[in-house]
Write a sequence for this structure.
């Protein structure tokens, strides 16, 4: 057992709610806002769980430098990568990128909502920020998140092939085989 139930539920819930929020952009604003808040709460949960959660969920147990992530990718392509039971260095980098981008998307969306006099930042100094700039930041961050999601799915597929493991199944069951069981 590698990934606990909370990590797995978070992962799949975030996938569903992000794609729903993205698809609702520009229409059904009220539903988009509620789904966006859900994404924000999920990201907040993951940050907290990354500090106090299970061993494989804790950031301290899998985060590495960008150089180590790049080295891992090069080693994986060359067939000489080390097997990781939990998140590999490339996956760790993707987690940081996705959480950061989702946080930027959520916060800029909350700031946009404040311009309309709604949400937790209404009637604060945030409500005086330039709306056009906030909208551009929100849209760009959401688009970058979508690109990161696509890269994440591609990376899971490639990693599964190169490392001869089923990462999608692992994120459903929470279980992952150790290298000796993969042969």
């Amino acid at each position: 057992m590698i990934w606990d139930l909370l990590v797995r539920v978070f992962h799949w819930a975030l996938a569903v709610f992000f794609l729903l929020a993205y698809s609702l952009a520009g229409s059904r604003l009220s539903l988009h806002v509620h789904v966006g808040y859900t994404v924000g709460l999920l990201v907040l949960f993951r940050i907290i769980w990354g500090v106090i959660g299970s061993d494989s969920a804790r950031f301290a147990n899998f985060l590495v430098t960008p150089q180590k992530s790049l080295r891992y990718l090069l080693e994986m392509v060359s067939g000489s990568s080390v097997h990781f039971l939990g998140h590999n260095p490339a996956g760790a980098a993707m987690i940081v990128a996705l959480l950061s981008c989702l946080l930027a998307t959520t916060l800029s969306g909350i700031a946009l909502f404040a311009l309309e006099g709604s949400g937790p930042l209404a009637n604060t100094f945030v409500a005086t920020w330039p709306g056009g700039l906030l909208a551009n930041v929100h849209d760009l961050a959401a688009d970058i998140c979508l690109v990161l999601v696509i890269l994440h799915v591609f990376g899971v597929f490639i990693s599964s092939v190169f490392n001869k493991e089923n990462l999608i199944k692992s994120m459903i069951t929470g279980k992952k085989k150790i290298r000796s069981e993969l042969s």
